[in-house]
What we know:
Blueprint: E1 3-6, H1 12-20, H2 29-33, H3 52-56, H4 61-74, E2 87-94, E3 99-106
Parallel strand pairs: 1-2
Antiparallel strand pairs: 2-3
Amino acid sequence: MDFTEPYDSFTITPLLAFKDLGFCGKGEGGEFVSGGRLGPGGELPRMTSGGGLSYNHPGALGVQLLVEAVRQIRGEAGERQVPRHRVGLVHAVGGCYSAASTVILAQD
């Protein structure tokens, strides 16, 4: 993956997603996200739009994550554009964590 757009209804939600998606093991989330790994210039940029906790948790955040991923893939994200953007992952949860959806987008 070149970037990820995990749903962030709470601070812990992306940590749980990274564990569930196999990016890190159980109890390793804190170490996984430390050191700038997930920042704009990091190894695995995430929440390039700022995320739901930053700008819009209520509403259609899941769809907005897809829109941001498409912008990244197309190279149309302006100042938020990540350098590597061929393959991106969008992951969202809902229904009190009883449902989850994951979409992987890629360009040819």
